[in-house]
What does this fold into?
Amino acid sequence: MYTEVLMTFGERLKNLRNGSGHSLRGVSEKIGIPVSTISNYEQDFRRPDFETLGKFADFFDVSIDYLLGRTEDPHGEDELPKKVYRIRMNLGKSQEEFAEMVNLTPDEVKAIEEGRLEEEKRWRAWISLVVGGFYERGIAKPKGEFKTVPILGKVCAGNGFPAKEQILGFEIDPTGQADFILEVKGDSMSPLINNGERVYVKWQNFANDGDIVVAYINGDDGVIRRFRRFDYVVVLEPENRDIADETIINLNDNPSWGIIGIILGKFHSFRR
It folds into this structure.
């Protein structure tokens, strides 16, 4: 059973922005997402992750379902309970059976359907909704077949592959795009990304202007910075300039530097 899409995410996002009187740059400055990325979202060239959806929903004071064009009710507070219940009923599963399928506890499924799940756990509910929808359409994988990625303490210059001692563990990747999870050291990207937090990273040696990347310079270990490109000059910007300075790289000088990967979002455990 497929849900009718009333409007694409890009169309809905652009309508909300125009209706609120904000420019692309205005939204970018308010929620910390590059102008180029928001523009790509509005043109449906890219899709946001769960964390980014939450930022847009909070900023425009609408539900995630409304952002995704699945409802015409901007606040749609009862959309999540209805959808989880509908999917569970279509599958013919009890709350306990459905909880096992989508990696929640029975109490969490019950709380979702009764509309009383704590706000900080709603992101897990949305993941359960996606997974449940896969089961509903017969295309789901068992939990054991979700990709598991390493959690790294640092990445090395060059190819970014870690030393064995830098692998802190392994976790399920609900984004389906990450190659590893990196534990952040220091506050150079604070308050966007803070010391001790973990981020999903996709191995990739290129980036768009404004992307947050893991990069290396002169053989040092990878650092997290915002990527800027101006013709033959690359600038790697920290968020907190009281902690770190920006790095300016002139590509005509054949510098020893490179992008190891791009940051997809902050890590949240997918386990119980």
